[in-house]
Design a protein that fits this description.
Radius of gyration of chain A: 24 Å
Strand content of chain B: under 5%
CATH class of the largest domain in chain B: Mainly Alpha
Order of helices and strands of chain A: HEEEEEEEEEEEEEEEEEEEEEE
Largest sheet of chain B: none
Number of strands of chain A: 22
Oligomer: heterodimer
Largest sheet of chain A: 22 strands, mixed
Shape of chain B: globular
Radius of gyration of chain B: 19 Å
Helix content of chain B: over 70%
Number of helices of chain A: 1
Shape of chain A: elongated
Number of domains of chain B: 2
CATH architecture of the largest domain in chain B: Up-down Bundle
CATH topology of the largest domain in chain B: A middle domain of Talin 1
Distance between the termini of chain A: 68 Å
Number of helices of chain B: 8
Structural class of chain A: mainly beta
Structural class of chain B: mainly alpha
Chain lengths: 293, 223
């Protein structure tokens, strides 16, 4: 008897959430550069760019949630835009999971309070905004704009233009970018691999590690108030100008020692590595700066 | 026209930071789009105005204490509690307002940096030529602009308070406290060494962070 009771309880446990959910299934032909907005209360959104001229939005939402909006234009026409808005009662637990397939050249704008957003294969534009959760992007979007409060941000691939801003969320970039801009208050920033033509990283207390290349004639600027700045130079041909107001500078790349800063406080160090094809400026108020291979 | 130029792009156009093709495309868009054209024109005018500021400004005696009081108040100020009655969203909480605040930010940042850069010695062995008092006076004028933007954004946030979850408000306040502490430390250091370019850049960076954070959270609440 006991196994039967257990089985019944198990089935009830599984069946309850299933019955409290609704399915989402939207399919339409769209242009290759369709503009898609997804906004509202969802827990996860997976966006995939594919080589088809169609949009597919699938997933499940809580029964009490409503999916508003839709694909623009007549149902028989190829749409150039789509907007979806997931609305849920304020008291509802956000559990909706959505999966969006769009042409790879699409521009996708997504925003949610707390959600895990994963994007892959988009070559168009991405504008992603969350409070909590996480954002993961892989591929080569033309433009990538990410804003997060405490959600972690991970980017792999080679966006042409990228901006990522967090309050406390960590930012990890693995890949290359022509124009990179990162700002964080207390998140940890890690940029690895690849090459960057123009990179600017600003943190207040977050530690910054830059272990990627800087393109020929490129520029790298890292500012931090109290975070540690670590520049892993590798074999880069780089002019480095490092300044701290009260922090210290450690140079493991050459034998050159930093000199005392203005008025005897802090330290300064200038290095000319290789033919100095690129320039790195590192500034920290009271965080330490470390240069290493 | 829905795909407006981003805030960063507008700034990059002003700062001549874009590749020629991208810059031409942005300028072309601004010519066709009234909203972006107006934003770009306003940005240009404000930055030009900031550059034209006199090198020496004599601020009222109470300014310094006022700025300090504002920052000190900011350290302990909190958004209205969630138990307060909901207030309607102000009609004036618009992207244009946010953009205007950001314009002030850019202008003040440029001014702040420019002021210090102009006062830089030509070599490390030469003493800064600009009198620190002059630099400080000009810098204070720039900081005043920052503070005005902060206060405006704070007011907008107060109006939109009920659109944000308590958890989000806590996160925002925590981040702002962190930035305020950094700003306070940077300001004190700049008072001691007013011609330090690196210091002014770091301080300007922290101000940008604060304005940007407030702008982001205000947009978050208003959408």
């Amino acid at each position: 008897m006991r196994p039967f009771v257990h089985l019944t309880l198990l089935l009830c446990t599984i069946a309850a959430p299933l019955s409290a959910q609704q399915k989402v299934d939207v399919r339409r032909g769209v242009t290759k550069d369709v503009y898609v907005r997804v906004n509202g209360a969802f827990a996860s959104l997976k966006v995939t760019g594919w080589q088809k001229d169609s949009l597919v939005l699938t997933g499940t939402l809580p029964k009490e949630a409503r999916l508003e909006g839709g694909v623009g234009g007549a149902s028989t026409a190829t749409a150039t835009g789509a907007k979806f808005y997931v609305e849920a009662p304020a008291s509802a637990i956000i559990t909706g999971n959505l999966e969006l397939f769009v042409p790879e050249g699409a521009t996708v704008w997504a925003k949610s309070g707390s959600a895990n957003i994963d994007v892959t294969g988009i070559t168009g534009g991405l504008d992603l905004n969350i409070v909590g959760g996480s954002i993961n992007v892989t591929g080569k979007p033309r433009e990538l704009n990410i804003e997060s409060m405490d959600g972690d941000v991970t980017v792999g691939g080679a966006p042409t233009w990228m901006r990522a801003k967090t309050a406390s969320g960590n930012i990890t970039v693995r890949g290359s970018c022509t124009d990179l801009g990162i700002t964080t208050v207390s998140g940890i920033v890690s940029v690895r691999e690849g090459s960057f033509e123009r990179a600017r990283i600003e943190s207040v207390t977050g530690n910054v590690t830059f272990g990627a290349g800087v393109s020929r004639a490129g520029t790298l600027l890292i500012d931090s108030h109290s975070g540690t700045i670590e520049l892993l130079i590798g074999k880069a041909s780089l002019d480095v100008d490092a300044t701290t107001i009260t922090g210290s500078i450690t140079n493991s790349v050459t034998t050159r020692r930093p000199t005392p800063g203005r008025e005897g406080r802090g330290e300064e160090l200038t290095l000319n590595l290789g033919t100095g094809d690129a320039r790195a400026t590192l500034r920290s108020f009271k965080g330490n700066i470390r240069l290493a291979r | 026209m829905t795909n407006h130029l981003s805030w960063e792009t507008l700034n990059d156009v002003i700062d001549d930071m874009l590749a020629p093709a991208a810059s031409a495309a942005a300028e072309s868009h601004a010519r066709e789009c009234a909203e972006c054209g107006a934003a770009l024109a306003e940005l240009r005018a404000t930055v030009a105005g900031a550059r034209a500021l006199p090198a020496s400004v004599t601020p009222p005696d109470e300014l310094w204490s006022e700025v300090r009081a504002t920052i000190e108040a900011g350290k302990v100020a909190h958004l209205p509690s969630g138990t307060q009655s909901a207030r309607p969203r102000g009609w004036w909480v618009t992207p244009q307002r946010l953009a205007a605040a950001a314009v002030v930010l850019v202008a003040a940042t440029a001014s702040l940096t420019g002021i210090v850069m102009r006062s830089q010695p030509s070599s490390v062995t030469v003493v800064a030529s600009a009198p620190p008092a002059t630099v400080m006076a000009s810098w204070q004028a720039s900081e005043k602009a920052f503070q005005v933007s902060v206060v405006e954004l704070r007011e907008q946030l107060a109006v939109l308070h009920d659109h944000l979850s308590p958890e989000t408000i806590v996160k925002v306040e925590r981040a702002i406290s962190t930035i305020d502490l950094a700003i306070a430390e940077g300001r004190e250091a700049l008072l001691r060494d007013p011609a330090n370019a690196a210091l002014s850049e770091l301080l300007a960076s922290n101000y940008r962070q604060k304005i940007e954070l407030l702008r982001r959270v205000t947009q978050l609440a208003s959408s």
